[in-house]
Specification:
Elements lengths: L1 E3 L21 H12 L17 H17 L5 E12 L2 E14 L3 E11 L17 H18 L6 E8 L2 H4 L1 H13 L2 E8 L16 E5 L9 H10 L6 H14 L5 E5 L11 H5 L5 E6 L12 E3 L2 E3 L8 H20 L8 E3 L6 E4 L8 E8 L7 E6 L4 E4 L7 E8 L9 E2 L5
Parallel strand pairs: 1-16, 4-5, 4-6, 6-9, 7-8
Antiparallel strand pairs: 2-3, 3-5, 7-9, 10-11, 12-13, 13-16, 14-15, 14-17, 17-18
Bound molecules: zinc ion.
The site of zinc ion (ZN) has 6 residues, from α3.
């Protein structure tokens, strides 16, 4: 069915749902981080079996937290360990990498939204698995965010399955994330969003300046998985700022607009300069993934032996954390998860045509369960979408009258009947 924009004098089809303000409890976040720090070290090579010290004890405690949350929602979360032995320069004898996962089944068990942090920690020497390694900000904060998200979202029902993930082996080579991303691929999950929270609890940077109203969201523009042929096509289409990961970051920036007290810095890099994180394992397999990280980093509090030198204190300790700030990042994640877990899958094969014409024709494949679609456009000297038009579910083609294809970018998202919107898929030339 074809809709001409000029004829589509439709009433507003879909309202934008208001974002909830949850009772995210900074004291609960602090208690979780304190507990994780209490295991001494959570290094991936530390003792997996010791009852109170090391990564094994931390993982068992985290699994128990998921179980406890599940018990209060009629077993709505299934807890599972996902493990594989990895070997590499940072684990020459091999190590069993164990991820602790909680699955909150959605109406569509095949489509998933993943929220993750890494449970492992390290000090100055990445091979030192015995020294105290509190890893409060890096990344007990991420794990505490995941547990708090489970506690709050377990009271609701979603279209997509939410996977709460405490990953291991990040510091040894993104191994736990690699395992989870490969599992997604093997099981054919449709990943609507993978949200990596790695260092979300500190506000005072290396220069002493405090930033407590902003979080960085890192994303790739051009996809790591692109072939040279796809790359050439994207070059021709001009889609460098509209890959799925970048579209996800832009959507999170939208979500932040009505999340209290926190702005999103859409950081147009896959990660910090020359550094990496767990979301990259997902990007390598083509999934939309981003990393949330504090606005201001303090390098004396990252990957450091606990010590004082010439009056300078080193170490990733809990006293440096800002839990009200972290609570705002939790709220942002909650609002983002709600949106992506409520929205249908993003439409596939979005393409446009209109060369040597004054109109642009957009086409897409129907997305399962979509109640409608939102066609976005902007002049191609702008970074964010400026205009949109909603169409009903039986539509897979729209003519944008007097929109010259040469001068505009176009994208299409899916909408649920309540107006929850997927990320926007960029329209290029057909495949
Ligand atoms: Zn980290």
């Amino acid at each position: 069915m074809k809709h001409l924009l000029a004829l589509a004098a439709l009433p507003l089809l879909f309202a934008t749902p208001a974002h909830a303000q949850d009772k995210v409890d900074p004291a609960a976040l602090r208690a979780t981080v304190e507990k994780l720090v209490s295991f001494g070290t959570r290094h991936t090579l530390s003792d997996p079996d010791h009852p109170t010290r090391g990564i094994g004890a931390a993982r068992r405690w985290t699994a128990n937290e998921f179980e406890r949350i599940s018990a209060s929602c009629g077993n709505c979360i299934q807890v599972a360990n996902l493990a594989r032995t990895f070997e590499g320069p940072r684990a020459p004898d091999g190590v069993n990498v164990v991820n602790v996962l909680g699955f909150q089944k959605g109406r569509d068990p095949n489509r998933v939204v993943i929220v993750m942090g890494h449970i492992d920690s390290r000090v100055s020497d990445v091979m030192n698995f015995t020294a105290d390694s509190p890893g409060a900000n890096d990344d007990a904060s991420g794990v505490a965010l995941v547990i708090e998200a489970a506690r709050i979202l377990s009271k609701e029902q979603f279209d997509a399955t939410i996977i709460y993930a405490a990953l291991s082996g990040e510091e040894q080579g993104l191994w736990g994330a690699t395992l989870l991303a490969e599992t997604a691929k093997e099981r054919g999950w449709v990943v609507s969003a993978a949200l990596n929270n790695d260092m979300v609890g500190n506000t005072v940077g290396q220069n002493g300046k405090r930033i407590s109203d902003r979080v960085r969201v890192f994303s790739e523009g051009i996809r790591a998985v692109e072939t040279l042929e796809q790359h050439r096509k994207r070059r021709g289409d001009g889609g460098e700022d509209d890959g799925p990961s970048r579209a996800l970051a832009k959507a999170i920036a939208e979500v932040s607009e009505d999340t209290k007290g926190i702005d999103v810095f859409v950081n147009r890099r896959p990660d910090r300069f020359g550094r990496g994180g767990d979301h990259e394992a997902f990007l390598r397999l083509g999934y939309p993934a981003v990393r949330f990280t504090v606005a201001a980093e303090n390098y004396d509090q990252q990957h450091q032996d606990l010590r004082t030198e010439n009056g300078r204190v080193y170490g990733d300790t809990i006293d440096k954390m800002d839990f009200p700030y972290m609570a705002r990042i939790v709220q942002l994640n909650l609002n983002a998860i709600r949106r992506f877990a409520s929205a249908p899958a993003v439409p596939n094969n979005v393409r446009m045509d209109g060369a040597v014409s004054t109109d642009t024709t957009v086409k897409w494949e129907a997305a399962p369960g979509a109640a409608g679609y939102r066609i976005h456009w902007r002049r191609n000297n702008a970074q964010n979408w400026t205009d949109h038009r909603d169409v009903p579910a039986n539509t897979t083609e729209l003519v944008l009258k007097d929109i010259v294809v040469d001068d505009h970018f176009v994208g299409v998202s899916s909408l649920s009947k309540d107006g929850a919107e997927s990320i926007v898929a960029f329209a290029g030339r057909g495949q």
